[in-house]
Amino acid sequence: MNSLVSWMGKGNRIWARQPWRRVVQFMGLFGLVFAIALGCAGNDQPAADAPAGDSDGRVTIGTTLTARTLDPADAYETFPGILLYNLGDRLYTYEPGTTNLVPQLATELPTVSDDGLTYTIPLRDNVTLHDGTPFNAEVMAFSIQRFMENGGRPAYLLSDKIATAEATGDYELTLTLKTPFAAFPALLSFSGVTPISPESYEIGTGSFKPDSFVGTGPYKLSGFTSDSIKLDVNPDYWGDAPANQGIDIQIFTSPANLYNTFRTGGLDIAYQTLDPEQVAALEREEGSGGWQVIEAGTNVINYMALNQKITPLNDVKVRQAIAAMIDRPLLNERVFQGQAEPLYSLIPASFDIAKPVFKDAYGDGDFDKAKTLLTEAGFSEAKPLTLEIWYPSASTTRSIVANTLKESIEAGLPGLVTVSVQNTEGATLWENVGKGIYPIVLANWYPDYYDPDTFIQPFMSCEKGSNNLCEEGPSQANGSFYYSPEANQLVAKQQAEQDPDARQQAIADLQQMMVDDVPYVPLWQNKDYVFAQDGIEGVAVEPTQQFLLWQISRG
């Protein structure tokens, strides 16, 4: 996807999604966990009708980001996803605090046919949508069909997988896939795969309702502007009622205003995005300031794409040497003030299957290994290597990362390697990545759903390739142009494999191919931070990166 994906999705420059790419870009120093799309909206004054500590039981949240749309068939940024997660329900969700997939609007996990193509799902019969429409299999089939047919940004997630969606009973949904896909139940937990009312929505290309939502969840949308978003409790919700009386989200135009408003008690919660210095200050003052610091990991990965179309990156020894040059602990210390974690596989460490393959193979800043590999590739001080690293010009963070890498590499390999740091406007950069213009690009990736496949297929697979280069497909779009028939076979195998052990072995083999062939170099994962005033309870970022607003309460 040549797109900017953000927690709140500032929507005036969210690029159209291609069906194999979901890249996250960054602008601010702490816009690291979820990308900040260009543009901004809103004012910087606390909401007069919802101050922190208000006795009506509502909770106020401040952020610097906004939502482009709340139409589940078109929302493909992270914050609209979080809003939809709280405004709607899904067939399957995750048990809070875990990565255990459990039924939500379904009553059981699917029954899967022997060929892995037909999923039969029993549904709840006690659910009513926000407009009073009864929920049933027809409503769910309509919602899935609309998601696939209306042509929104995430449409391909289902349309590439599902052949038919049918109500085979009042409360029985049958989904037939085009090819077997082991991660399908996890895909059905995607925030946009939520039932919406056939009375309020229609199927039709480009037919979207960006500023409203009529679904089944614990909150109803009661306000949606560029300044604020207001969620009221749904009194007719079929499940447990929220622990609060509603949520008021205020949009700030700068981290400084968000930081100052929270510090002075004008907000209950601050979430996204604060600069590292502000995060560090709030951590230092936690005991005396009257607030809590909630730290969590993320599933966003940050990496280098190495373009094998450009000499000398077509030489695997050069790519391996670059992997050995990267000093991740140095990046964490100098760039992120400890607010990140080194990443040694494209699969985040939150997955048990993730292995630190790059650490084992190349270490951190192992310049002796890098020198040996470069010598084998024919480079010397008489014939030095020049590396060109590109990043989007609006990203202060990536600028610091690129220049820190330049300083470290040139100091570690004097006279042997020169690093050139380049940037261009974000839209231009992401438009041209798939054209093979840039040798090395700093990029990042936010998963669509919680499964290792989302960190494998978009990077290692290729639909059409020859001469060891991808001509069309995911790895071409991601800028590496990696092509391996063996990798394609392993990707297809792990997608179709229903045996968990066999699937894990295929994923392990793919991680080994990543480290052997080095089409990408994993760099870091950010930590996620939420700040809450004392007395605010139930604030947590889920392992799947969701933010469950209904759990938040006043102590």
Sum this structure up briefly.
The protein has 555 residues and is α+β, with helices and mostly antiparallel strands. The protein has 17 helices and 22 strands.
Structural write-up:
- By secondary structure, this protein is of the alpha+beta class.
- It is built from 17 helices and 22 strands.
- The strands form five sheets. Strands 1, 8, 9, 10, 11, 12, 13, 14, 15, 16, 17 and 20 form a twelve-stranded mixed beta sheet that branches. The chain has a four-stranded antiparallel beta sheet with strand order 4-5-7-6, with helices on one face.
- Helix 8 (316-325) runs antiparallel to helix 11 and helix 16 runs antiparallel to helix 17.
- It is globular and about 75 Å long.
- The model is unreliable at 1-53 (pLDDT under 50).
- It is found in: Cell envelope.
- InterPro entries: Peptide/Ni-bd (IPR030678), SBP_5 (IPR039424), SBP_5_dom (IPR000914).
Strand content: 15-25%
Q: By helix and strand content, what is the structural category?
A: alpha+beta
User: What is the molecular shape?
Assistant: globular
- The radius of gyration over CA amounts to 24 Å
Count the helices. How many?
Answer: 17
What's the helical proportion of residues?
25-40%
Mean pLDDT: 90
Low-confidence stretches: 1-53
- Distance N to C terminus: 43 Å
Main sheet summary: 12 strands, mixed
- For the secondary structure, the number of strands is 22
InterPro entries: Peptide/Ni-bd, SBP_5, SBP_5_dom
Pfam families: SBP_bac_5 (PF00496)
Domain Solute-binding protein family: 101-466
Organism: Leptolyngbya subtilissima DQ-A4
